[in-house]
Amino acid sequence: MSLEDPLSGIPANVWKRFPLKLVEGVPLMEPIADNWAQVASFEALPDDLLIATYPKAGTTWMQEIVDLIATDGDLLKSRRAPTHLRCPFLEICSPARVLSGVEQLSKATSPRMIKTHLPIQLIPKSFWEQGCKLIYVARNAKDNAVSYYHFHRMNKTQPDPGLWEEFIVSFMEGKVAWGSWYDHVKGFWEQRKKHRILYVFFEDMKEDPKREILKVMQFMGKDLSDEKIKIITQNTSFQVMKDNPMANYSSFPPAILDHSISPFMRKGVVGDWKTHFTVAESEAFEADYRRKMGQCSLRFRLHI
Ligand code: PPS
C-alpha cells in the first residue's frame, strides 16, 4: 500500500532513482521506456502545441509564457493549477498510481499545451502528420549541463549523478536521461524548416524577454496589447516564477523533488558554468564540443 503525500496526493513511498533503458538507442528512465508503446502511438490533434526541450533548457519558463499568452495574460487563469497539470509531460510515466502524461492528455481539453524532452526522432509521428506547432528551447551546453547536474541531485527519480566531474563525462557521452544534448539540439535545428518549429534560445530569453515573448505570441497566432505583454513579461521573470507555487514545482513531495538539496528554480542565469568547470574541464569540454558540433551552423552564447 502506498502512503499519500498530504499536499499533492501523490503516493510517497514508491519512488526510486530509476535506471535508464534504451528506446531506439536513447536512454530514458525505465518507466518511460516500459510504457513506450503508449507514447509512440499518441494521437496528436492539429491544435496541440508542443514545447520540446533538452531537460533544463528553459521548459518551465516557456510553458509559463505560452500559458499566459494562451490565457491572454490572465494571471488568475494561469494560476489555476501547477505547471505539470496545465501543460502535461507527454512521455512521463511512473509505477505509482499517478496518471501518465498520455493518460492526462486524453482527459485534457483542447487546445492542449504539451511538454516533451524527446529528441526529434522519437516525437510521435502524429504531431508531424497533424502539422502541429512546436516551440523548441535550447540552452548553451555548459549551463545546461550544470543545471541538469543539480536537477539530478534534487530529483530523486533520476539516476544518481555522482560527482560533478563524473556527471560531466556522462553528459558529454550522452549517457544521461533523454540522451545526447548535442544530438538533441542539432536534431530540431536541422529540421526546423521542414516542420512548424520555432527555435528559441534561453540566452535570448534572458537578454530580452519581451522580444522573445513577442516571437512566441506571433508564432501562436495571437495579438495581445502592450499592457498584456508587459504583464506576461513581468510574471515570467525568474523571481516571480520562483515565488509562484503554480510554477516552481513546490507541489511535488520531497520524495520526488527535494528542493532543500537544490531548488527547482535554482539561479536562472547565463554563465553559471563558470562557477562549476575547472579550466581543464572547460578545455576538454570545448574540444569535445567542436568535434560534435563543428559541422553544424547552430551558435550558442556562453555569456550575454
Ligand atoms: S525541466 O525539469 O527540464 O522542465 O527544467 P527546465 O524548466 O527546462 O529548466 C529549469 C532551469 O530553467 C531555469 N528557469 C528560469 N530561468 C530564468 N528565468 C525564468 N523565468 C526561469 N524559469 C526557470 C531554472 O532556474 C533552471 O535553471 P538553473 O540554471 O538550474 O537555475
Category by helix and strand content: alpha/beta
- CATH class membership of the domain at 22-143 and 175-226: Alpha Beta
| Amount of beta strand | 5-15%
CATH topology of the domain at 22-143 and 175-226: Rossmann fold
Question: Biggest β-sheet: count, sense, barrel?
Answer: 4 strands, parallel
Number of helices: 15
Order of helices and strands: EEHHEHHHHEHEHHHEHHHHH
Give the termini distance in whole angstroms. Answer: 51 Å
Mean pLDDT: 95
Mass-distribution shape: globular
As a percent range, the share of helical residues equals 40-55%
Which ligands accompany this protein? 3'-phosphate-adenosine-5'-phosphate sulfate
DSSP strand tally = 6
What would you report as the Rg, rounded to the nearest angstrom? 18 Å
| CATH H-level homologous superfamily name of the domain at 22-143 and 175-226 | P-loop containing nucleotide triphosphate hydrolases
CATH architecture of the domain at 22-143 and 175-226: 3-Layer(aba) Sandwich
